[in-house]
Specification:
Helices cover 45% and strands 20% of the residues. Strands 3-2-1-4-5 form a five-stranded parallel β-sheet, sandwiched between helices. The longest helix is centred in the C-terminal third of the chain and has 14 residues. The radius of gyration is 13 Å and the shape is globular.
């Protein structure tokens, strides 16, 4: 855990990422909300203004540059496996929006990678 709290980023600023994850993370006293990732420039700009976070178009760039402890992934389900595995390999814990994966094979791959990396 970082000295200022658990450093968290959010990927996906849509109907769940923006109103739920961002708001809850920003309000939590033990979290340091540091970064967001979304493909839409207007959403990124709003997050920067509202929360004072750094924003990224690229998930890879957010992981590489933000020194995150954890990431909340609130993107379409078919993207969860690749994004989760990438985040776990970058050393992050992962919070996934439901459904976790489109099928049991993807879910099992995410769980296996988390176990390999000793991450939740």
């Amino acid at each position: 855990m970082a000295a200022g709290g658990i450093r968290i980023g959010v990927s996906g600023l849509g109907r769940v990422g923006w109103p739920f994850h961002c708001a809850q993370i920003a309000a939590h006293p033990e979290f340091e909300f540091v970064a967001v990732q979304d493909l839409e420039p207007a959403r990124r700009e709003e997050a920067e203004r509202t929360y004072g976070v750094r924003s990224y178009e690229s998930f890879t760039d957010m992981l590489r540059e933000s020194r995150l402890d954890a990431v909340a992934i609130a993107t379409p389900t078919h993207l969860h496996r690749a994004m989760s595995v990438e985040a776990l390999r970058a050393g992050c814990h992962v919070m996934l929006e439901k459904p976790m994966a489109p099928d049991s094979a993807d879910a099992a791959a995410i769980v296996a990678e988390a176990a390999r990396r000793r991450r939740i």
